[in-house]
Amino acid sequence: MDPLSELESTLNAFAAAPLANPDQHAQCQFPARLQWLKTRLRGHPAFRADVKCPAFEKWTQSGNVSSLSVIYATGYLGNPASYYGHTLLKFNFGDEQGKAGLMDVSLNYGAILEGKDDDMLSYLIKCLIGGYEGGFSHIRFYFHEHNYGDIELRNLWEYRLDLPQESVRLVVAHAWEVLGKRYTYYFFRHNCAYRMTELLEIVDGLKLTPDIPPWVIPQSIVQILSGTQYRGKPLLAEVIHHPSRQSRFYEKYLSLSADESSALKNLVYKKYSFTDSQFQEMPLPSKQAILDTLLDYYQFIGVPLDRAPDEIKQSYAITLATRYQLPPGTPPVRALNSVAPQDGYPPGWVQVGWQHNELLGNTLSVRIRPAYYDVLDTDSSHVLNAALSMFDIQINAGERKTYIGKLDVINVESANPGLSGLPGDSGTAWKLRLGGEQLRLWCNNCFGARLQGDWGYGRQFVHGLFGAIYVGGALQDNQINQGVAYAKTSTALIFKPGNDFSMRLAYEQRLPIKSSQGSYDLLSAEARLALGKRSDLRLSYDWDGIRSFKVALGHYW
Amino acid sequence: MKQVKFVTGAFLFLIAALSISSASAEDTATPAKPDDSAKTTAVKPKPALNPWVDCGIGAMIFSETKWAAVTSNILWDYGTTAVTSASASPNTCESSRAKMDAALLINNSYEKLAEETATGQGEHLTALLNTFGCNFTNHSSAIQEIRNAMGRTVSVPGYINQPYAEKAAKLYFIADEVTSKTCTI
């Protein structure tokens, strides 16, 4: 359409007399256009019509939005659509004390399912290829705070923006305009993070969506936000952490003294009860701390509590009733030492190194991982001791041959840290990997497809030391007589005393199926040293009957 | 989910039965005689609006999202909140907007509200009191009164297995009564 014609039509519509249904008037349907045009065409006759917009006024509480926040929900490995996290936009109205909170309106963008009962695979494929429409919905923030934090056990991070009031009003008005609009939903680009930044970018001079790479990851957006200036000031005014139920449980549990922790365990294992002297004679703050920890514990292991086994429900009920018998008050709790998402590593990673294989000789190794993290560089902005990557490719170039070392279409490792070791918090772990690789370390012409899965248990032994054992198997391309499949058992130890250094040791025993190849063992060790916020140095050792070493530098982007 | 629906349906039947019996009693109440000024017969007050029974509070939270959509990042069917059907007119419910907002908050966050009331503080509790229009200076005394009532509520045998809507409604009526008496705007 010709822009001038569109402008004239818009102004004519704005100038129309009020309608019987005032919310249908153009000024009420397009308040952002109205606001913007008023600043450009001051005093234009089109703006003289006395139009009231009851629905818009109600939605904005008469224009009482004081600021905007971007909400980031950390990734969730229980749902592939949630692997990369999620973003929301929140309109902060402020309470009596001026504090934004649970009653604020939050805006969410996602795929519109409308009762479609697609299985997970169909759902994923449709999300990738644009098989769904997308749209915005709005709801009070407490709804998301509950679902993300208490049900999916995901941390929420709130990034309150420092924008002038006219910009806040413009974004809110534009959000009203796009409610009900339908888009095509694409998981990698035109996703929640993209649409959120598209709303914010209506503000003149604000650019948040990256042009490169072609995909948009929610965590990247919050990292861009934290580094953006607007009108000479940081765009980011404040970062607020809304810890999940699991995080709150761990914070309380780790804040208990040795005596309190011991008492809690005795209560969980029913060695004694709340009415026994061992508990009754404890100081009041200790009893409060233990009960508050138990409330979070039972909610965490029973989530959702309505569907939990009766034993957990009864234990929770007794704990709650006992808590009411004590005076109110909350003992201090030490926050977990969390890395906020905006301070985490960028999602992309490229690595160049030198690799020596005892049999195959020396090669230059180049690895490109577009997203996202592995067990050595994951931090609390992701799932700890976990891994998530897609299209991770390693190419080896030797004197005589260049070949693909491996290509992971998807690699997921999920590990509940099991920090307390209490029943229900014992650390279920699983792995899923689909891709292709050289099937054995001693060959470079045996690239085959492989699908691997493992199930096991992990446990955080002491701070910084995590261990897991697995059983699993794989289906594979039958090359070099390796069989069509194998069963396996494996163990792994991850040592991560801080954010800058980490190390992984792993042992695996494989039993090929339908192959004359007997069982064989694999050993691997990898150490990582962070070099600033965007680089790392890794040393790795692998053994598969022969040895291979690699030293490589990596860069995050 | 089926279990929640069955229990909720049983609860609604019970409320309906009680309503019919109370209505019958009200219909047969003897009106005051105009020539007998010394004595009057008390008229039973109209039952307070129950957002779960009268307004389908569980469904209302979704009806406000402009379209009944499911995002790619939220799994709906946890059955953690009560979904009930409405029996009162939308205008009746809408005229008590603040109370409906409070009921929606309780319906969504009942367990955290119960826990925060036990500890005597928390952002959900603050949000609830603010939504009921309770002045900040009155929060402390309101919390104490709500806490006393909730302490009795959670100590009832079988509390944990009460239907979610029933527990949420109890907290709603406790908070409504306390804030009506204790809080001033």
Shape of chain A: globular
Number of strands of chain B: 0
Beta-strand residue fraction of chain A: 25-35%
Strand content of chain B: under 5%
Give the helix level of chain A as a range of percent: 25-40%
Spans of at least 5 consecutive residues with low confidence of chain A = none
Distance between the termini of chain A: 39 Å
What is the overall number of helices of chain B? 8
Structural class of chain A: alpha+beta
**Global geometry of chain B:** globular
Straight-line N-to-C gap of chain B? 40 Å
Following the backbone from N to C, one meets helices and strands of chain B in this order, namely HHHHHHHH
* Overall average pLDDT of chain A: 91
What does this structure look like?
The complex is a heterodimer of chains A (557) and B (185). With 557 residues, chain A is an alpha+beta fold. Helix content of chain A is 27%, strand content 34%. The longest helix of chain A is centred in the middle third of the chain and has 19 residues. The two termini of chain A are 39 Å apart. The mean pLDDT of chain A is 91. In chain B, helix 3 crosses helix 5, helix 5 crosses helix 8 and helix 7 packs antiparallel against helix 8.
